[in-house]
Amino acid sequence: MPVSKTLDEKLRRLRAGTATRRDFILADAKDGDMAFGVTTPGPHASGRWRSLEDYRMQIREIVRERLVDIMLLSVSNLEQLAIKERLFADSPVTPAARANDTTDIWMVRGGVYPQRPSRPFRTAAIEHILHGRLGSTAGEPVTGADLGLYSLTFTNEVERDLETVEAFREFRIEAEQKRFRYFLEVFNPNVGTVRVDQIGEFLNDHIIRVLAGVPTAARPLFLKIPYNGPAALEELVAYDPNLIVGILGGGAGTTRDAFQLIHDAQHHGARVALFGRKINLSEHPLTFVAFLRRIVDGEIEPAEAVRAYHGELAKLGVKPHRPLARDLQRTPVARKPR
């Protein structure tokens, strides 16, 4: 009998209004190779960059420990781990793949793409995510993933944003036809055309506006957005109680930054967190994720979790990136476009 997926169980309870604090959905974003290229796995002690196999080993470890509900991958890593290795076959973790890669996430060395208005683009084909190839037959079992992340970046420039919503419409139609599920990521503008104090409102209005014309059959399972402060998050959550709102992690920062972010976002209504670099660039990802789970389950407060995390690093013989006193500090948040 197939192992039930914790994502599906938690979504059912969230939609039924019977969810508890422990139904918070935690995801690990290991799709960074679609943004950062060679530097994705992070630095190695030798001074070089870690390898693709190092990256995949971290994915295997987190999935096997059942620490997250979703593992987000690039299609190439999904093919290797889900289709060839069957890593998720007997796991409660749901695999997912990044379904598009807009130009604002082309964060290559020497590149300037993130400083230009975002343009829509999709490397991945839905059939490649589902089956690892084109030409599948109706009713063919999914061997890859039936879940993807689709991202939008609005720039307040009409021609660019029109391209963005047209591409999203095409994706939604194809996804519905292929019975492919997705969750929707909406980034802050990547160029400075929106007043800093209006970014949260700008994002909220675009999310509601773009989903207002979408029926249930084509809507995302949940949202993934930047945490633009408690007021913006609470406004979005209050507007539509059926909309499950999640937050993204962003850059690495201190350990306190990560632990406080997930704590505060949950307190103000988020029900999902998807962290990528915060996990990948931590000293010991398995232990780091374990503390994220303890925080959202209400077992430990952020500051206490930082101290306990450092204690675990000492037991493991792992040198922390920062002294404890520094790691307990929070990095000032600069409210600006990405």
UniProtKB/TrEMBL annotation:
SUPFAM superfamilies: Aldolase. It comes from the Bacteria. This is Deoxyribose-phosphate aldolase/phospho-2-dehydro-3-deoxyheptonate aldolase. It comes from Opitutus terrae (strain DSM 11246 / JCM 15787 / PB90-1).
